[in-house]
Write a structure and sequence with these properties.
This protein is mostly beta strands. It has two helices and seven strands; from the N terminus they run ββββαββαβ.
C-alpha cells in the first residue's frame, strides 16, 4: 500500500432539503445531512436500529445539482472525503466538527417511492426471499461528479 487516501462512501436518506450559499464570486456551497441506519439483534433477539447523522457539504456544480434534484427523504449515495475541523465556541471552548465534502453523488429514490420490502427487518427479508420471486426494478439514477476535488 503505497498511498493512503481519505475516501468516504455513504448511502442514506436526506434529512432535509439542502441549503445553498452563493458567494460573491458566484461559487456555490450546499450543506445538508444524511441519515444512515444499521440493524442488529439485541440480547433478547429483537431487531434494533441505530441511526447516525452525517454532515455533508458540496461545492460548485455538485452543489447546484443536489439542490435542484433533491428533497427530504431522498435516498442518495455520496462519495467524498472526510474533513475534521476545530473552532472556538463563544465561551472559549475548543470544539470539533466533522463533515464529508462530496465530489460525487447518485440519487436512488425518494421515500415515497420506497418499496414495501424495504420496510422489512433483515430477518423478515430472509424468510420472505424464498417465498417471493425476484422482481427486476429499474431505478432512475442521476450521477454528478465535481471535476475539481482539491477544494479547501
Amino acid at each position: 500500500m503505497s498511498t493512503l487516501t481519505n475516501q468516504v462512501k455513504l448511502m442514506g436518506r436526506l434529512g432535509s432539503r439542502p441549503e445553498i450559499v452563493t458567494f460573491k464570486d458566484k461559487f456555490k456551497l450546499a450543506k445538508f445531512s444524511i441519515a444512515t441506519n444499521e440493524n442488529y439483534k439485541d440480547k433478547e433477539g429483537v431487531w434494533q436500529t441505530i441511526t447516525q447523522w452525517h454532515n455533508i457539504v458540496a461545492w460548485g456544480n455538485v452543489a447546484e445539482s443536489i439542490c435542484k434534484n433533491s428533497d427530504k427523504g431522498l435516498q442518495i449515495v455520496i462519495e467524498g472525503r472526510l474533513n475534521s475541523k476545530t473552532y472556538e465556541s463563544k465561551s472559549g471552548e475548543k470544539r470539533y466538527y466533522t463533515e464529508i465534502e462530496t465530489s460525487k453523488f447518485q440519487m436512488i429514490k425518494s421515500k415515497k417511492q420506497k418499496a414495501s420490502s424495504l420496510d422489512e427487518t433483515p430477518e423478515d427479508s430472509i424468510k420472505n426471499s424464498t417465498k417471493k420471486p425476484i422482481k427486476k426494478t429499474v431505478v432512475k439514477a442521476v450521477k454528478v461528479e465535481n471535476k475539481k476535488t482539491n477544494r479547501n
